[in-house]
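ESCALATION

Customer reports they have been waiting on this structure for their group meeting. Please prioritize. Original submission:
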Amino acid sequence: MTITATKFPIDLGAYKPLKLDPSNPVLTNEQRETLKANIQLCRDAIVLFTATGAAKGVGGHTGGPYDTVPEVMILDAFFRGAPDKFVPIFFDEAGHRVGTQYLMAALRGELPAEQLLKYREANSKLPGHPELGLTPGVQFSSGRLGHMWPYVNGVAMANPGKAVFCLGSDGSQQEGNDAEAARLAIAQYLNVKLIIDDNDVTIAGHPSKYLPGFSVAKTLQGHGLKVLEGDGEDIDDLYRRLCEAVTTPGAIAVINKRPMCPGIEGLEGSTHGHDVISVDLALKYLESRGQAAAVEHIKSIQKPKDSYTFLGSGDKLGANRNIFGEAMVEVLGRMSETERKEKVMVIDSDLEGSCGLKKIHDAYPEIFIPSGIMERGNFSAAAGFGMEKGKQGVFATFSAFLEMCISEITMARLNYSNVLCHFSHAGVDDMADNTCHFGINNMFADNGLDDGHETRLYFPADANQMKACVNAVFSDPGLRFIFSTRSKVPNILDGNGNDLFGSNYKFVPGKDEVVREGTAGYIVSFGDALYRSLDAVERLKQEGIDVGLINKATLNVVDEETMAKIGKTSFVVVAEAFNRRTGLGSRFGSWLLERGYTPKYAHLGTYREGCGGLWEQYPHQGIDPAGIMNKVKELAK
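Update from on-call: job pushed to the front of the queue and completed.
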């Protein structure tokens, strides 16, 4: 672990390790004051080091770890006071609360406090979700909501006689996995204690508004759990309820009501508190707390940026994840209001701002369903709406969560449904959240049989092609998956410096496109890997290697004409950000051989766990222009 030379500007040595006996539910005055001081110290520290992520542009999350400090401080005291009674791990369903894990590792002396100032930076080993084996002091991996409570059930089975804690949230409780976990915990009388931060805030809104019938407490009571509900900011009541939960056998939920980011002016109760605190609000908060050194450190941060100049693409950057929504609004605008209501239903999974669906929500709220964090059910609802000929269900979420919907995709196909899906955050670019949020197994969506209901996978290369793609495939029957990245992508240029996908361009599903001709061999790419591959092609040509470039925007259909063109050359390299084991490259070589083509073949893709940061993920995987050029040179010998 590399240690930054900068001293952590808040004195974590002021933390006073406390031992508490859960058999005594009443705090002494000294214990209470120590807890309050520890809570305030840790909250200040969380604001500081998460705000460094905002200042550096790598993002992060402040609200979740900040909110849950009181219960974490009490659990830490339990672990110290009665170590034989607990599995001493702060298992957490919400990976974005990773700040808790990093801070506790620092307080235990397992992570240098100064390292916290590198939060979410590339190669800092402090990614946006906890990863076991990567960061000293981190004891589990987490990040996809609804996955940790079922796992904790197994931990409890492996540790009879000990209580196991799982930090939950009203958001994670919306996932169907947690309902299954609750039933098993009750049936097997597992000693699992759910500590749930119920702040009525998720990314896109307030559960009380978009799921008005949903109650965390009533839901868990319906599964058979004892529920202890109260004010999470009332230290004495919180402590009493946690003591009761620990001293009562079986599965129990301690539900803590509080506003998001209590005490942070400008964020308290706001959905914006879910993400990283803004620099301005962090400075204001830290100044009010008298943390002058912390304020100066944040002010001194300079945001890093990628200085590399890519050849073959322009300087117009487009966020395709938002362009999808803009293109959809254009398509829907050509329909009458009656036709829209009758033929289109758009359903969100609490990510409308990240997937472009907010554009649709704002323009045509009458066809928009703001829903909860329940990807499987929402996808199936879209598929059910699109079961009838001429109707379209529209669904969107992050590409990482496509893996959660495979069975529902199969059932939609078997029911001949029409679903237009947008899976954003595909690949690895700009993924400071890191490995658990990589969208690299997207080809799993193409899991039907040859004679099954049509499934098409599309990954447009820039904003112009995204618009053209949405317009071309919107009305098509079957399942259509359109992918986009978290990062912005530049406009792709032709050999004359004009937009390749300009105003006269028409997207043709299933048709590959020649971006650059070549006589020595070809690179096949798509999405955000295309402009990087184009840069490699331009530089290779300058070095005398006449390699060409193919844009395969339709990922799962063989273009026979293009296959014949490239199959007769000396080599073919597939360059992508998808999983090397499951991506386009894992199929493309077989497609060549099946047609009798035998060029030298290689495929580059994501093959290792992430390094954090933003654009740094590409060179880390060897799929940046340098990596692509090296592979071409190897085959061109």
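Sent to customer with the following note: The radius of gyration is 26 Å.
Escalation resolved.
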